[in-house]
UniProtKB/TrEMBL annotation, chain B:
A cellular-component GO term for this protein: plasma membrane
TM ranges: 23-45, 81-103, 115-135, 164-189, 210-235, 270-293
Keywords assigned by UniProt, alphabetized: Cell membrane, Membrane, Transmembrane, Transmembrane helix, Transport
Domain ABC transmembrane type-1: 78-293
Keyword hit for Ligase: no
Membrane topology listed for this record: Multi-pass membrane protein
Compartments reported by the entry: Cell membrane
GO biological process, one term: transmembrane transport
Oxidoreductase in keyword set: no
UniProt similarity note: Belongs to the binding-protein-dependent transport system permease family.
Domain of life of the native organism: Bacteria
UniProt protein name: Glucose ABC transporter membrane protein
Organism annotation: Pseudomonas putida (Arthrobacter siderocapsulatus)
PANTHER family, alphabetized: ABC TRANSPORTER PERMEASE PROTEIN
From TrEMBL, chain C:
GO MF entry, a single one: ABC-type transporter activity
Top-level taxon of origin: Bacteria
Record key words, sorted: ATP-binding, Nucleotide-binding, Transport
Protein name: Glucose ABC transporter ATP-binding protein
A Pfam family of this chain: OB_MalK
Domain ABC transporter: 4-236
Gene Ontology cellular component list: ATP-binding cassette (ABC) transporter complex, substrate-binding subunit-containing
Organism: Pseudomonas putida (Arthrobacter siderocapsulatus)
N-terminal signal peptide: none
GO biological process: carbohydrate transport
InterPro entries: AAA+_ATPase, ABC_transporter-like_ATP-bd, ABC_transporter-like_CS, ABC_transpr_MalK-like, ABC_transpr_MalK/UgpC-like, Mo/tungstate-bd_C_term_dom, NA-bd_OB-fold, OB_MalK-like
Length: 281, 302, 386
């Protein structure tokens, strides 16, 4: 819908619209700006200045200390996120492929059961999952966390691919079958090459979800194996000695930059992931 | 004839191909059955036991639920959820719709502005919570900034005020999620048939009226989608509380998700924790089931 | 090229649901062109999918060259199919699309190149080999889809409404090309369409389907001149056959149909003398081209005066609508006659060409007596001329 409020001359109402929008932009940006500013100040500076005051001296000490504190856990997050994203995407793609092109009795029921997983409050599975991980010897390990993320990411990844593949005509698969292609050949040579957009959506969505996760991290991998979100929270919320807000903010930036970067670079896929989930929901 | 015999027999590879779809889906089926439904059942069972630090399977009936009902902190958490949830959903919807409507007016740099509104969704709730915790810091945060700018005597200590701390959670959550509502509604607005708008304009309606009376009501499905997802976020809110307030001061800003974690893993009250988890599930079902039911019914009418 | 036979084929999608295909019996010889025609939902596409092996039949057998292939998977049946939506692989170029099936069958690259070149030349798509389907027009995509099927050199070709997505002019062109290709290559073909003109012009044999049943199976001429029931008679022929419900009279042992135009009456004597027919509700069927202007000198054919309600000059003819027995009746007259609305015309009928149908069951009464004579052939010829 694109009927504009006014013609050539910016009218009062149009100015009001822009003013509101710009003000809202500031509201959204201020926390980020504040975080950045604070991370480059010294603790004294923070006490004497205020949120938006320019640093007396721009110092990177906050960042150095932050990296000391949470840097190791940054790599934990990488170790957890990368395999979990790749595997859950692949399994989701295969599931979506089967559910849309090779339906059989019970597959629709399975899809319905799976779909509920998108709404699952994870609190209901935390205890049993931690028992299981314990029995498997994977408690407090990054591997255990990868496993958890795969299991509970399946619902969304399958949803993405299945919805995407329903718009691929069945005739394409039928033509390939007549040409002699088998199950995996059709998947690998025909469907996957067509799936680049949804693969991007899935990868970015999963990356964001898994990197940003805290609940699974704190329940299943406290300690050495914890992801950066847990480390950040520990840093910020354990009060030993004077609070060093510059360190806190720098650590928050470290934790947030990867997903923020992905968003800036590939935002449209991120948006598609959000709306894809919403539309089905 | 031998040729008929050969052509008739399906090769063993054929049989494999027929079963491949099922085989491929099987691991996921297993995962769903065990990891989703099996675990829920397990938690459900645990909620009827007297598990504390370790799981035990001694049946105690509804005792844990009773303890839950008697627990002041649980009541605070539940009330907070309603308060937080209601405000969060309401304000997010209003802000999101407003921004979407404004953005729909053929704005220059619309893409850039959209990106700004939506970026908070890319952040972890921990990061958001940490940032807003600092912003709302009583003494060093927003209040100091405003005082420095000339507003003498301005105080903002909601973060440590038991009666007002929930508002801090709301502020941070709305900041994070309203961009998402905006994106949903913008997409919905773009799908509205422009001839309806033109007909209304010809009828003499002003633009605000057109939006309020014609366009927005036609976006009911989007509204419900957004509602569902926001409600889901609200009920699952754990990260935000952990980062901003850890449930404090005391347990004034506790939410059910935090309560469950706390009681199950910190305080060794697995039974009660499980009961609280099941109640959370109930809350989600209470919203989900009527929604799905109405969706299915409207589909059957089509 | 192979023979194809369907023996008592039926298909159902589940207990409690009505059968999608019921007792299909068809047989075509090597090199013949079979058309499956019928309205949407009649089961023709399902039948085609069953022949291809994309769906399983619930009963009966499908035989190719007298061998039962009912249990075989699609890739082993040596059948190629051209889909309505062409189903070209979007991420591959034209050459790879055509070569895909050949690669799977492990042909040598040299043999594949040869085959692709042969097919491209045949269909005149050599200049398109490097392009992707998204860069092709509808007609070009259709040729590539045909090329993909031809390259496989299968025993049987299946076409699933391949011309439906083309615009009218292109459709006519491609129809002729398909016919020419069939004449050259003498391929055994099964072709599904809902367009009865395609059915009449392309097929050696036509099977008219409705609700999962074959209503009639025969040559286009048989279908046109000797329809088995009301449905077949109404489905084939454009403009469609006129149907006038009435009750027959019996006079002096002969059966008569009484026609009343409001301006006059006439009696059509009908040959069949079955007892009891006059008690039944029947439907009289007569094709628009079988009604002509009465010759000035009486030629013995029954005639009637009727008032013109509507005229539709189509170019090659003029369609004139009158009312007989309170039913709208269409007459196809030569274009030179351009009667005015309201004018009275004298029309005549040939009782030998008139068909009778049972009003309740739709079955043709007195079947088998319709002569296949020169008049009939002319009617088909005027289709072929279009």
């Amino acid at each position: 819908m694109s009927s504009s409020l006014a013609a050539r001359r910016p009218s009062l109402s149009r100015l009001a619209v822009y003013a509101t929008l710009i003000a809202a932009c500031l509201v959204y940006l201020v926390p980020l700006i504040v975080m950045l500013l604070t991370s480059f100040k010294s603790p004294d500076d923070i006490r004497t200045g205020n949120l938006l005051s320019w640093p007396e001296v721009i110092t990177g000490i906050g960042w150095v200390k932050a990296w000391d504190a949470v840097g190791g856990y940054f790599w934990n997050s990488v170790k957890i996120t990368v395999p979990a994203v790749l595997i859950s995407t692949l399994v989701g793609a295969l599931n979506g492929y089967v559910l849309s092109m090779w339906r059989f009795r019970g597959s629709q029921l399975f899809f319905g059961l799976l779909l509920f997983g998108c709404f699952l409050p994870f609190q209901t599975v935390l205890l049993p999952a931690s028992f299981t991980l314990g029995k498997l010897g994977l408690a407090s390990t990054t591997t255990g966390l990868v496993l958890v993320h795969i299991v509970y990411g399946l619902a969304f990844t399958t949803l993405f691919f299945r919805n995407y593949y329903t718009s691929v005509p069945q005739a394409l698969v039928q033509a390939a079958r007549l040409d002699g292609a088998g199950f995996f050949t059709i998947f690998g040579r025909i469907l996957l090459p067509m799936s680049i957009p949804i693969i991007m959506v899935c990868l970015i969505w999963q990356f964001t979800q898994i990197w940003n996760d805290f609940l699974f991290g704190v329940v299943f991998a406290s300690g050495d194996a914890q992801p950066i979100t847990v480390a950040l929270n520990n840093l910020v919320n354990t009060s030993t000695g004077a609070k060093e807000y510059n360190v806190d903010m720098a650590a928050a930036m470290i934790a947030g930059l990867p997903t923020l970067l992905v968003y800036v670079l590939a935002g449209k896929y991120f948006l598609r992931g959000l709306t894809a989930g919403a539309v089905k929901g | 004839m031998s040729t008929i015999a050969v052509l008739n027999k399906a090769s063993p590879l054929d049989a494999l191909q027929r079963w491949l779809p099922r085989l491929v889906l099987a691991p996921s089926m297993l995962i769903v059955l065990v990891g989703f439904y099996g675990y829920i059942l397990w938690t459900f069972v645990l909620s009827f036991t007297n598990s504390s630090f370790m799981p035990s399977y001694k049946w105690v009936g509804l005792a844990q639920y009773a303890r839950l009902m008697d627990n002041d902190r649980w009541w605070v958490a539940s009330k907070n959820l309603l308060l937080f949830g209601g405000m969060f959903i309401g304000i997010s919807l209003v802000v999101g719709v407003l921004l979407a409507v404004l953005l729909d007016q053929r704005i220059r740099r619309e893409g850039f502005i959209r990106t700004v509104y939506l970026y908070p969704m890319a952040l972890s709730m921990i990061v958001t919570g940490t940032a807003w915790k600092w912003l709302l810091n009583p003494g060093l945060g927003l209040d100091k900034m405003l005082r420095d700018w000339g507003w003498e005597g301005f105080r903002l200590d909601w973060l440590v005020d038991p009666d007002r701390v929930v508002y801090c959670l709301v502020i941070a959550a709305v900041w994070q999620a309203s961009g998402f509502v905006m994106a949903l509604f913008l997409a919905g607005l773009r799908g509205v048939d422009p001839s309806i708008i033109r007909a209304a304009q010809v009828d003499g309606a002003s633009l605000p009226t057109i939006y309020l009376r014609i366009v927005l009501p036609s976006l009911r499905p989007v509204f419900f989608s957004a509602l569902m997802i926001l409600a889901h976020i609200a009920i699952k809110s754990f990260d935000l509380v952990a980062a901003m307030t850890a449930g404090g001061p005391g347990y004034a800003s506790d939410l059910p998700a935090m309560f469950m974690y706390s009681f199950t893993f910190s305080r060794g009250q697995m039974g009660m924790g499980s009961a609280s988890a099941i109640l959370m599930l109930g809350a989600i079902l209470a919203i989900l089931v009527p929604y799905l039911y109405s969706e299915l019914r409207s589909k059957r009418h089509e | 090229m192979a023979t194809l036979e369907l023996r008592n084929v039926n298909k159902t999608y589940g207990s409690g649901l009505p059968d999608t295909l019921k007792n299909i019996e068809l047989k075509i010889g090597s090199g013949e062109f079979l058309i499956l025609v019928g309205p949407s939902g009649c089961g023709k596409s399902t039948l085609m999918n069953c022949i291809a092996g994309l769906e399983q039949i619930s009963g009966g057998a499908i035989l190719v060259d007298d061998a039962d292939i009912s249990g075989m998977s699609p890739k082993d049946r040596d059948i190629a199919m051209v889909f309505q939506s062409y189903a070209l692989y979007p991420t591959m170029n034209v050459r790879d699309n055509i070569a895909f099936g050949l690669k799977i069958r492990k042909m040598t690259p040299a043999a594949i190149d040869e085959e692709v070149a042969r097919v491209a030349k045949l269909l005149q798509i050599e200049h398109l080999l490097g392009r992707k389907p998204g860069q092709l027009s509808g007609g070009q995509q259709q040729r590539v889809a045909m090329g993909r099927a031809l390259a496989r050199r299968p025993r049987i070709y299946l076409f699933d409404e391949p011309l439906s997505n083309l615009d009218a002019k292109l459709r006519v062109e491609m129809r002729t090309e398909i016919k020419l290709m069939h004449q050259r290559l003498k391929t055994t073909t099964v072709y599904v369409t809902h367009d009865q003109i395609e059915a009449m012009t392309l097929g050696d044999k036509v099977a008219v389907m409705k609700d999962g049943l074959i209503q009639q199976f025969g040559t286009p001429q048989q279908i046109y001149n000797d329809p088995a029931n009301l449905f077949v008679a109404s489905f084939i022929g454009s403009p469609p056959m006129n149907f006038i419900p009435l009750r027959l009279q019996r006079q002096e042992g002969r059966l008569l149909a009484l026609l009343d135009s409001g301006q006059g009456r006439c009696e059509l004597p009908l040959g069949i003398g079955e007892a009891g027919l006059e008690a039944r509700e029947v439907i009289l069927g007569i094709r628009p081209e079988q009604i002509s202007l009465a010759a000035v000198e009486g030629n013995g054919l029954p005639s009637i005066r009727a008032q013109v309600q509507v005229t539709e000059p189509t170019g090659p003819d003029t369609l004139v609508f009158v009312t007989l027995n309170q039913t709208k009746v269409c007459c196809r007259l030569a274009p030179e006659f351009a009667p005015q609305v309201g004018e009275s015309l004298s029309l005549q009928f040939d009782p030998a060409r008139v068909l009778l149908f049972d009003a309740e069951t739709g079955e043709r009464l007195g079947r088998g007596r319709a002569p296949v004579d020169t008049v009939g052939t002319d009617n088909i010829a005027q289709f072929r001329g279009r």
